[in-house]
Amino acid sequence: MNNQQINVPDGWERCPLRNFGHVIGGGTPSRSQPSFWNGSIPWASVKDFTDDLVCLHDTVEHISPDGLSSSAAHLVPENTPVICTRMAVGRCALTMQPTAINQDLKAFLLKEDIDRRYFIRLLHFNGPVLDGISVGSTVRGVTVGDLLSLEVLRPVRCTEQSRIAYVLDTIDEAIAKTKAVIAKLKQVRAGLLHYLLSYGLDENGQLRDPVAHPEQFQNSPFGLIPIAWNYGPLSYFVPSAEYGISTSLGDNGCPVLRMNNLAEGEAELSNLKYSTAAIPKALWLRPGDVLFNRTNSWVHVGRTGIWRGQIERATFASYLVRLNPQPGLLNSELLNLWLNWPPIQISMRGFATPAVQQVNINPTNLRQMLAAFPGNLDEQTNMVAYISAHDVLLRSERDELKKLKQLKSGLMSDLLTGRVRVPETVTGGVDRL
């Protein structure tokens, strides 16, 4: 945002960053001296910073006192704003303990009348501006002169700065709590999925227990599996597979799903490409189709998602494969969960063959994998329902996180420009530092 286009509110001023204090840089101890490294002093570099980081609690690397004294690295105090001026220009955070910094960072030693938590928000807000004025063909960076010359709006009184910081801290706390809930739900989901795909559900819809009821299990190449389950090569459950269309893609025509349209077991519609070629009727996607990415890097090969009929007509690219489960033997939803199960993702890479700068999993080879599924389709349906109910909770928390982030973005824009003033009755942020 261009501060020049914003009126200066009463009690505020427009000033360059140099008016807030002065900056110091850092350096890197010699890598050829082992005694300089793996010490007790946190040593910050660009890799320690993310877009939404506010507080830097620790660093990936640490140096020794000898490393600090033998280099240009500076030890900056706790509660000091540090900003990236090379590579990830504009990323910043407050140190939570005395921390050394390298040459790609600058630390702001602020005047006493500046609220530090307010100032780090101000840097975050102006990060895109700094990135926009950075220069360099290979590694982009912003000069100290340009950094200190950046003009910003600020409240003159430290108490108003503190109130702004307090409001933004509060929304960040809500974001952090929601992230923690999401992390816990994902952990629970992983455990539940593992248990379901290993032991399934009994006739009462309860998770089977191989310890309490060993009589309900049989030996198999996988170890113990329920007696009521079938096992064999995946081709028994998935007798056929189809490649997608091979044609040039553009911005018009029929929507074509590609690898990047598969994420976390689902098919999604961002960044769609299109084909003007005639699409065979057999290659139109149907709700419930399971798509498997057969060719890509080691990281992305095997990515799988299910099509839920989000739009009426769509097809899929040739490096995706549609897997067709046998009706009466396998629920497509369960197949999708199984293919996204981490142990299966690892196993399927054993069938990958290297190619030029990528790997390939032939669907014929994929279907040689051994698999085990409930013989009763009702059990399969109930297993999917278990996970679906959990996913409803997960989606709800993710939606809440998205709303909180949007709220934070709007609040930063309003509060850090003075368009909206924090009432003086909000005192939680005053005199915290």
Strand content: 15-25%
- The order of strands across the largest sheet is 15-24-20-22-18-17
Count of separate structural domains = 3
CATH C-level label of the largest domain? Alpha Beta
Characterization of this structure:
The chain has 433 residues and is of the alpha+beta class. The protein folds into 3 domains: 154 residues, DNA methylase specificity domains (Adenine-n6-DNA-methyltransferase TaqI, Chain A, domain 2, Alpha-Beta Complex); 130 residues, Helix Hairpins; 143 residues, DNA methylase specificity domains (Adenine-n6-DNA-methyltransferase TaqI, Chain A, domain 2). 30% of the residues lie in helices and 24% in strands. The chain contains 10 helices and 27 strands. The strands form 8 sheets. A 6-stranded mixed beta sheet has the order 15-24-20-22-18-17, covered by helices on one side. A 5-stranded mixed beta sheet has the order 2-10-7-8-4, with helices on one face. Strands 5-3-9-6 form a 4-stranded mixed beta sheet. Helix 2 packs across helix 5 and helix 5 runs antiparallel to helix 10. The chain starts with 11 loop residues before the first strand and ends in an 18-residue tail after the last helix.
